[in-house]
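re: ur question from yesterday

yeah so i grabbed the chain u mentioned. its 247 aa long if i counted rite. heres the sequnce exactly as i have it in my notes:
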Amino acid sequence: MAELHISISAEPIFNLGHFEFTNSMLVSLLVSAGLSLVAIRFYQHLKQNKKSNFALFVATVIESLYEFVQSVTPHHAGKFFPLFTTIFLFVIFGSWAELLPGLDTIGLIKVVNGQERFVPLLRAATADVHTTLAIAIFAMASVQIYGYKYQGISYFKKFFNLTNPINFFVGFLEIIAEFSRLISFTFRLFGNIFAGEVLLIVIAFLLPLFGPLPFVALEIFVGFIQALVFAMLTLVFINIAVSSEHH
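ran it thru and got these structure tokens back, copy pasting raw so excuse formatting
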């Protein structure tokens, strides 16, 4: 019987000096390239005024996402829509990568510390805590950048207010809140996707034919919800940051 392979961390496929290129990086690269190709092809269809099922489908998805953004922040929908859509699409496809056939069976045999070790070639991008941390840093940095862009230096007064001890303490709590959001973003997404990936691997190992099918449907739903929640919370935090009042 084949050995069950589960690793909590992403595993390196090859090394470039001291830099390790992991299986989650490969999936991230494939997802980014795939989304870029779809965007280029869609742009070409629009430029040629070509009405195809592909163009209609992409336009429908874009319109649905834009309407959602507009329902959350009607005054800034056009400005925040690209960021929201980028995060949503990358997270959802990076999470759905756990559904690829052969996820835990296609890989390389590497020699580590004198012993042969199987390394899967693919791993869901968001099943790597480094990837989710990078997305979370990008999201929270965007919140601060938009806050500064719309309110100027006064935006940072909520963090550093020395007018009295109470305001100073409140500012300290605001800083802690920003870091707690960063940690929450990182581990909520990682935990949900990694747990789903482990579940699929174990079920496929025990019941290889039809056992994983119900769980595949569940993970499709979980991937969608996690992407929507991550992107929506980023949008909400940005909308709060650009507001003239902070409560």
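noticed a couple things. The radius of gyration is 21 Å. also Residues 12-241 form one domain.
anyway ttyl
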